[in-house]
Structure formats: C-alpha cells, structure tokens
User: Fold these one by one.
Assistant:
Number 1:
Amino acid sequence: MDAFAYMEKYGFEQLCLFHDKGTGLKAITAIHNTVLGPALGGSRFWNYSSTDEAVEDALRLARGMTYKSALAGLALGGGKTVIIGDYATLRKDPIKREAFWRAFGRYLEGMNGRYITAEDVGTSTQDMVYIHMETDYVVGLPGRSGDPSPYTARGVFNSIRACFKHVHGSDDLAGKVIAVQGIGNVGYYLCKYLHECNATLIVTDVDSERVERAVAEFGAKAVSPGDIYAAQCDLYAPCALGATVNDETIPQFKCKIICGGANNVLKDAQIHGNALQSKGIIYAPDYLANSGGVINVSYERAEGGYSEEASLRDIEYIYTRMLDILTIANASGRLTYEVADEMAEQRIEAIRAVKGIYTRK
Ligand code: NAD
C-alpha cells in the first residue's frame, strides 16, 4: 500500500515504526487524529504476513478509534498499535517477554503522551504491567479500571434498548428474541444483562463450552454457528467477528435490528448499509454500540482517579446518543453510520476551531 496516499486521503497525523533488535520488537503505531486529546487505542499482537498488511491494519484501526472516542464524547483522539510476530513463542519466556514490552514502553515514553496504549487482541494485562514499568502512557492496568468487556457489553445493552425504543416505542426487552453470535468476554455479559430483562436468547459460538454455559445460566437456545443469521429473532447481536453483515448473510436475516459488540460489522459500510436499509433492517453503528470499554478505560486518566460510577453514567448516555442517531437517520433517509460519522466529524471540527484560541498549554 502507499501509506502516505492513505494518510493523505483520511487525514492521518503520524505513522511510527519501532524496531528493537535485541528483543525482536516490531511495532507500528498509527495516530489518526489528536484534536480532541491524546490518541488512545490498544496494542494488537498478530502474525501479519507482511509489513504492508500490518501498516494497513494499524491505520484502519487508528481511524476507527478517532470516531469511537469522538462520538463517545471523550477528550481523546484515535490511535492504535499493531505488533508483528508470533506471541505464542515469546509468551513462554518470561525474561524475553518482559524485555520486549519494556522496550515498547520506552518507545511510547518517547512519544511524550501523544499516544496511550491498552490491551487488545493478543495482548494481556500483564503485558500492560511491563509497559507501565517504563511509561505512564498505558491504561487497563490491574487494580484500576479492569477488564473493559462488562462495560462494552453494558454499552451494547443500552444501544439495544435504544434500538427497540426507536422501532417499537418501548425499550422493554421482556419476551424479545435476541440472537447473540459469540459468547466470549462481551457476548457473555451481554447475555447476562439481556437475561436479567427477561429477553429470550438464541446463542452460538465455535466454542461449545461457552454455548453450554449460556444455555445453563440464561436458558438460551443454542444454534450452530452457520444458523445464527437465519434465526427467527427480533435482533441480531454480532459479538464475535467483523464483516458478518455481507452479501451471503443479508438475504438470511429475519431480524429487524442489528446491534452488537463487534467492530466493523458491515463488510462494506456503504454497500451493506444500503442493503440493510432496503430490507428495512435498522443498523446500530458499531463503534457507538461498543464504546463502553473505551469510555471505562478513559476514566483511568481522569483527575482524582478511576470512578466506576462516573464511567457507568457515561455508558448510560450511549442510549440517548444511539436514539438520536436512529431518529436523525430515519427522518433524513440517510444511513445510520453516515449520521454517526458526521456527528463525530462535527465534534472534531468544532474543537479544532477553538484550539485557535491562545492558551499557555
Ligand atoms: P472474545 O474473543 O472473548 O469472544 C469472541 C467469541 O466469539 C469467542 O467465544 C469465540 O469462540 C467466538 N467466535 C469466534 N468465531 C466465531 C464464529 N465464526 N461463530 C461464532 N462464534 C465465534 O472477544 P470479546 O472481547 O468478547 O470481543 C468480541 C468482539 O467485540 C470483537 O469483535 C472485539 O473486537 C469487539 N470489541 C470488544 C471489546 C471489549 O471490551 N472486549 C470492545 C470493543 C469491541
């Protein structure tokens, strides 16, 4: 890929490649936008097949974080790190592992706060602890905000209630049939919250133990992974992978609403967003629905320290924001994700403008 062409097209600020020969660290940090505040986004460890593939992923994910934090009302910009390598091998050697993450921590310290990292796919809380030995520009540490998944799930739950309010005039979930794909960290908590409201659950996962747990604890009905799209339900909640709304699945959907925790649910935002709209299916923009985790982790950096109460108050507000977006999209005939993007961009531009006012900071 032509990284500069991509950066120019989407307005990126910075792309950094970090290499440490001694530890084998190969990290790529992309900073999309820091108008609202320092860029925050997790560090993803993945066995990328090429540097180009890793750069593209870092850029795409960093931009997503800008929109997520902007719409969530946070004083944060968007960034992301991807780390190239085979973590299974590194994880087995505690000394090499510590050195690896501390090397990365020292590079982050050198960025002087423009980017703050956190846990993501393939990384763990312990890795963040190693990073923290070298820098304060890391969140998601033990004893602070903790696992973001229950908070992400809470935001998805609030979004689901907003969708029902929009479609049916009531957010009462009793008796509503909800099909949850992926009963992992987010999916499990989501099922728990939905079950507490007497929703009827249909679940699937490639891990049969997780399915059995949901059946036992929440009285969920299990279906095989391939059958979740055609399930007879009111709402499909993707909580496993991205791109599950695509040419193959759209003809199968019987639901009227799609709202879940996964990122990039629409394989192609415009094509599949339009296809859902033509089918009369309401799509809840994913980066708003799943913003509870970043909201929660952001409170680690609040003055006075982490407050779960304040975080949950913000996560409740996702309901109102989601309802606004659905209402505006409905009234204007536009796609829901376009309305969400525009709101995020408007906030960034408004704050960019006030940054022209001189202060000493
Ligand atoms: P997880 O790995 O704990 O759970 C994912 C689950 O999906 C696993 O149980 C896995 O077995 C299952 N799965 C994988 N492929 C499947 C398939 N084809 N069909 C059915 N099930 C399948 O991950 P998580 O932390 O719960 O995150 C879920 C999604 O939410 C991811 O897309 C993630 O990027 C997104 N997300 C998570 C958070 C968070 O706080 N954890 C925040 C924002 C977004």
Number 2:
Amino acid sequence: MAARVIDGRVLADQIDRETMSMLSRAAIPGARPSLAVITIGSDAASDSYSRQKEKVASRLNIGYRNIVKDENSEEDEIIAAVDELAADGQVDGVLVHTPMPSRLDERRILDRIPQMKDVDCASTYNRGRLYSGKPLHAPATAQAVVEMLVRSGFSPAGKHVVVLGRSLVVGKPLANLLMMKSAGGDATVTVCHSKTVDVRAFTRRADILVSALGRPSYVTRDMVSPGTVVVDVGINSIPDPSTKSGYRIVGDVDYEGVSEVASAITPVPGGVGPVTTSVLMKNVARAYLSRQDLLHN
Ligand code: NAP
C-alpha cells in the first residue's frame, strides 16, 4: 500500500494560522514583529530560501530584511552587522545563514546574537539551554520535524527514532528535541553518521526514520521496514536537463521506492522546508511578544 503523504504545506498553513491568531490577540497599533537575516555571499539556493522567508513573513505581517554581505567581507564587518541588529529595538529575530565561508569563525559570529533574538537557536548559550532540556527558541528545522510528526498523529513518545546525520544544524538538535521529557519528545533515539558501520541495520529497526544527510536518494526501499514513518529533511539539487533551470530539488529518500513500504512519508519539496519557515516565523512572533511582555504561552 502507498504511504500516506505528510503534506508540509498544509501543516505550515496550520502553524501560520496559529501565529496570526497569537499576534492578533496582542495587536499593538503601529507595531509588528520583525526578522533580519544576514546572508554572506549570494547563490541561487540562498536567494530562494530568502524569497521563501520573505513571502511567509509578508503573509503574517512580519517585517523582513535580508542583508546580503559580500562573500569576501571581513569577519569584523559581519560582527558589526550582527551587533547593529542586536541593538536595534525594532528587530525581534536575527538569523545568520550557515554554512559561512570557512575563513570566518562561525561560532564567534553566531554567539553575538542576543538569546531572545536568536530565533533559530544558533548561539552556544541557546544550544546549551536546548541540551539541558529548556530551550528558549527551538531550532526551526529540528522543531519542524517534531511538529510534522505530532500534528500528523505520529507522536515520537516511546518510539525508536533513527536520525541520519549529526550536524549542529539538524541532526544533533533534533536528537535532543526527540529525547526531551515533554510532548514531542520521550523517544528512544539512534543517531547515525558517516562513521556508522552498517547504517541499514539501524534504519531497518526504526519506527520513525529521519534523514538529514544531504545525499540524494541515499535512503532506499531495502533500508526501510514496512510501516516505518519516514521524514526527509534533505534538500539536494540534481541536474535535470528537462527543467528550465537545468536542475531539480530532491530529498535524501528515494521517494517512489520508499513510499511502497513506509506507512507515511514527507515529500521534497513541500515537506520539512515550508514547515521550517513557519516554525521560524512563530519563533519571531514569540520573541516579539516577549519583547512587549505579552507572551503568555
Ligand atoms: P551537513 O552539515 O553536511 O551534515 C550531514 C550529516 O550527514 C553529517 O553528520 C554526516 O556525517 C552525515 N553523513 C553524510 N554522508 C553520510 C553517509 N553516507 N552515511 C551516513 N551519514 C552521512 O548537513 P546539514 O546541514 O545537517 O543538512 C543535511 C541536509 O538537510 C542537507 O540536504 C540540507 O540541505 C538539508 N537541510 C534542510 C533544511 C530544511 O529546512 N528542510 C534545513 C537545513 C538543512 P559526519 O558528521 O560523520 O560527517
């Protein structure tokens, strides 16, 4: 039987409605939340992420500013830009796109974002809070995975969740969210990475399998046991001469093959991506309400 499709666009709309309702209950004439993003260098992928965020922000009446710095910018220039946003009383959320060029000290830059404005949980302080079970803002992509599972009726509690990937951006924070003693957590988590021997032996024992590798079609049908819920975080661009751009976006999962054995699956595009943006905007709204001292939930 074909897997049930977990539609990220539908869930993103649901989250957006909650954000709008949260903001409308605390409307202040002339004021609105605002997100500022710093992008170092520019390419098709970062432009597309930025446009996506801008579209959702505009729908939610959240101010959005994308500050594009030259890819050869000095580290101190980036730090100065972050500091300016940190001090700006009208900015609620600050995000610096990663990965940054390797000559820059990513940690030093991310750690300049004040905790309440760190809406993607990138700073060491906020990571520490997450790892100690008390996140201030949950990292958007990892939280998006949890939201997709819970909102689709696949609570991770008591389940064996296998996460492929241990990056600081996705795999590691996701494993922590899934282990938390709270709603959306309470899972038994296995994390696999490039040094894991026989990944398939782990994936076949998963109730829920989340792939965050960045490897097109890595997860094949034979790696998945019947009934597994599969969440594909991967966003990979592969050549496709039949498209106008010459490429197309695929996930880490061989969607066609895995759909035949999984009980549910997220598509790419239209899966984790849109939910991530909506979770991020909800975090911005919460930061704004907290600034106004109006955050009650
Ligand atoms: P990353 O920093 O490159 O990390 C990839 C992880 O996968 C690493 O832990 C790596 O292991 C592991 N890995 C790579 N090849 C492997 C293999 N053959 N077998 C087992 N493990 C392997 O990537 P990332 O930033 O976490 O992103 C992962 C994917 O998610 C990318 O496609 C990215 O575009 C996508 N993404 C999507 C969203 C969204 O909103 N949907 C957000 C962020 C990222 P080692 O640690 O041992 O190297």
